[in-house]
Amino acid sequence: MFPAVPDAARTEAEMPLAHPLVDRAFIGALVRHFYTRVRSDPRLGPIFASEIQGDWEPHLEKMTDFWCSVILKNGAYSGRPVPAHLKLKQVKEEDFDLWLSHFRTVAAERCPPEVAAVFVDRAERIARSLKLAMFFRLERPATGTAG
Ligand code: HEM
Questions:
Q1: Which residues' Cβ are closer than 6 Å to ligand 1?
Q2: 88 CA to middle of ligand 1, Å?
Q3: pTM of the model as a whole
Q4: In this structure, how many other beta carbons lie within 10 angstroms of the beta carbon of residue 50?
């Protein structure tokens, strides 16, 4: 068995956010606001539309689970974001900047500043790791005899 990690040894990103405003209902409303916005973006909207046809509710519930896990650490989400994004061949690295700019706007509109800062910090970290998984390639060392 692993020893329990004392709170003081955990990084801030591993700790649940305890704020009276932030519960599943709050997170669900934030998620819905964000995806309404993203779906109307001329670049990101068509990417989502080509992957999610028909009923958006299951995706919105999944994303609410995801953000509850990230923010409240309640284990609501057990999916695998990396493979879900690796298959999105239309997505370019710079699309993440657009995604994050919508996320920052929505967080600022709906959350007190200290709560928005936590959501945005987590989104930036996860965006960075998704981008690494999708776009980072080690340069191959030159082979052959040239040079
Ligand atoms: C350009 C940026 C992004 C695009 C275009 C994008 C697009 C998508 C699409 C189309 C899906 C649905 C895939 C499917 O259901 O098969 C998806 C799923 C998902 N996305 Fe993103 N995404 C982006 C960035 C992010 C970021 C930054 C996060 C987290 C902070 C995130 C978290 C997730 C999660 C958790 C899922 C569900 C994966 C699963 O369990 O099926 N995405 N995304």
A1: 44, 47-48, 51-52, 62, 66, 79-81, 84-85, 88, 91, 95-96, 99, 123, 126-127, 130
A2: 9
A3: 0.90
A4: 10
